Amino acid sequence: MMFLALAIIMASAVSAQTVRNASGSSVGQIESNGTIRNSSGSSVGRFDSDGTIRNSSGSSIGKIDRDGTIRNSSGSSIGKFDSDGTVRNSSGSSIGKVESDGTVRNSSGSSIGKAPGIPREWVAAYFFFFPFY
Within a 13 Å sphere around the CA of 2, how many CA atoms are in the beta-carbon half? Predict the structure, then answer.
């Protein structure tokens, strides 16, 4: 019976993936439910399932549309995440890329961080448009 209770508790636990900067230091975590935590473990924001991005007080600060368009709190397009991982600014210029393994690169191709196991559009928003770290 105790094993079953432990299994249920573990199954309901939210997994968190670490976000690292270019030097490999942890700058925070993003949980599978969208909660964003800083390096101290405090909740600093959230990615909702409908694409809304929220700050620590729960206010909407932006949104990721289904087509990858990233919007600010006013609804204006501030960038785009392409299906190949390319991140573009509002003018359409490439400002970086999120590779399939979670490596984040700037427009010069240099690694600026890593966030494996996290939806790439969340990683793009986190590193390029809404830096929670």
Answer: 0
- pLDDT tens string, the chain, 133 residues long: the values are 444 333 444 444 568 999 999 999 999 999 999 999 999 999 999 999 999 999 999 999 999 999 999 999 999 999 999 999 999 999 999 999 999 999 999 999 999 999 999 999 999 999 999 988 7
> How many whole angstroms separate alpha carbon 53 and alpha carbon 61?
6
| Closest-CA residue to 82 (of 72, 104, 103, 67) | 67
Name the pTM for this structure.
0.86
Q: Are 109 and 2 in contact (CB under 8 A)?
A: no
Domain-wise residue ranges, the chain: 14-129
Tokens encoding 87: 């991140």
How far, rounded to the nearest angstrom, does the alpha carbon of residue 96 sit from its chain's CA centroid?
14
